[in-house]
Design brief:
This protein is an alpha/beta fold and 472 residues long. 33% of the residues lie in helices and 17% in strands. It contains 19 helices and 16 strands.
């Protein structure tokens, strides 16, 4: 608890975002930062609620009331120590997490929730600024070797804890730079990549070995990995995107969202020249198929590339503005979400299905769409096509942002002969262990596509299970 009456005296105040006219001209982070005094006042709103449902809603079990109280009292170093004890990378989640904790905050019952996510990033940034974050290599090594395959949030979290436990950890990444989804999947305007590099540099100083440009299972065989390492953690993500198999799909100008986002991030990093960008939205009519966060990221990126129009369509119905009766507090509120990218300029439509694509000279120019209706039958939503609603939507560039179906099966998964579950993800037991006794899996590769914070939680769990396995 911070100030017992803080929530009665202080109104919720968010950091706010840079002006639209300014931010759409660059790829710098959109969100601003409150001054320390205002941030401490926001922390004071954390009330004596008895049961911290915010902690219940947080996948990494953040001790939210504790570090809110510490930051309110100006004890920033202690606040960071408390925050970091449950979350390896609060600088990531403080920027890109949808704040499940805030949806579960008790102040949602008649008041506005505490700015938990913003408080979190304020604490970690203050800790870096003041020099509280320092390399802390383990005091002794166990002599055990662990390979972590995939350097996204789950892999980084697992590698971090296993290294701190004293094992010799090698983090493998098939791309040229570590970070996985954080590096190439999330736009710079949401997460600047210097934040990732800052943490990776710290982990390297603590003894972590990072090998980039190595496709495990291809550049290094599964047998070699099994013979070299005492344990292996697979955290390669859910990289197989959901496709739209309709007539005209093979036309030029139709791309998976992640290819588009990765391209722009590489340009921003100086790894790809602007002239070499083969997916450029400038001067084009862009249609994004898929209404989630990845689709929203495509919207913001296309705006910065100076598209002349952007439309986002979603097959599911439009979410309600407020909670429905079957979505009570403290569960995550499934309500209409308007991102900063949407605010910058985008037309959005729901309950629309794409039937086919058509084009000229092999290049997409139109999408044939129709309206659909969703009804609840036997506890499940059933979709019906609305007769007489077929029409054309102009499009010069189409991005498929319909989520991911499962992890990639080629490469390390097939090389190690790992069993898959019914959804095509790596099958693990309650200890994160695969059918290969020394091989474990974490994050989206085992659980399916999810959030950065749930990936971190999964990586932490896998690390603890691997440590227990090695210490038997």
């Amino acid at each position: 608890m911070a100030d017992i009456n803080g929530f009665l005296k202080i109104k919720r105040k968010e950091s706010g975002n840079r002006p639209v006219i300014e931010r759409i001209s660059d790829h710098s982070e959109v969100e601003q930062i409150l001054n320390s005094e205002d941030r401490m006042l926001q922390a004071s709103r954390c009330m004596d609620c008895g049961i911290p449902f915010c902690q219940w809603g947080c996948p990494v079990d953040n001790l939210i009331p504790d570090w809110n109280d510490l930051s309110y009292n100006g004890k920033w170093e202690a606040a960071y120590a408390c925050l970091h004890s449950t979350n390896n990378f609060p600088e990531f989640t403080g920027r890109v997490c949808p704040a499940l904790c805030e949806h579960s905050c008790v102040l949602n019952r008649g008041f506005e929730p505490v700015t938990i996510r913003e408080n979190e990033v304020a604490i970690v940034e203050r800790a870096f600024l003041e020099g509280y974050v320092k390399p802390e290599p383990p005091l002794k090594r166990t002599g055990k070797k662990v390979a972590v395959i995939g350097s996204g949030p789950a892999g980084m979290a697992a590698a971090d804890l296993l290294n701190q436990a004293g094992h010799e950890v090698t983090l493998f990444e098939k791309s040229d730079r570590a970070g996985g989804l954080l590096r190439y999947g999330i736009p710079d305007f949401k997460l600047t990549k210097s934040v990732i590099d800052r943490r990776l540099d710290l982990m390297k100083e603590e003894g972590l070995i990072v090998r980039t440009g190595v496709n495990a299972g291809v550049d290094i065989s599964g047998d070699e990995l099994l013979s070299t390492f005492d344990a292996i953690c697979i955290s390669t993500g859910a990289s197989h995107p959901r496709d739209l198999q309709v007539p005209g799909r093979d036309l030029s100008g139709i791309h998976f969202a992640m290819d588009f986002l990765t391209n722009q991030n590489r340009i921003n990093a100086g790894l790809l020249p602007q002239s070499g960008n083969y997916i450029n939205a400038e001067g084009k009519r862009v249609v994004v198929i898929g209404g989630g966060d990845t689709g929203s990221d495509c919207v913001g990126t296309a705006i910065r590339q100076k598209a002349i129009s952007i439309t986002q369509i979603e097959i599911m119905p439009k979410p309600p503005v407020t909670r429905s009766e079957n979505n009570p507090w403290p569960d995550y509120a499934k309500v209409l979400k308007t991102s900063t990218s949407h605010e910058e300029g985008c037309q959005r439509y729901w309950s629309i299905s794409a039937k086919s694509f058509s084009g000229i000279d092999g290049i997409v120019k139109n999408i044939v769409i129709e309206d659909v209706d969703w009804k609840m039958q036997d506890g499940k939503y059933v979709m019906d096509v609305m007769p007489g609603t077929v029409r054309n939507m102009e499009a010069d560039l189409v991005f498929l942002a319909m989520g991911f179906v499962h992890t990639a099966h080629e490469g390390i998964v097939s090389a190690l002969g790992l069993e898959l579950d019914q959804k095509g993800n790596i099958k693990v037991n309650s200890c994160s262990q695969t059918n290969q006794p020394t091989v474990f899996a974490a994050g989206d590769s085992a659980n399916g596509a999810s959030l950065v914070v749930t990936a971190i939680a999964s990586g932490r769990k896998a690390a603890k299970e691997i440590d227990n396995f090695l210490n038997r």
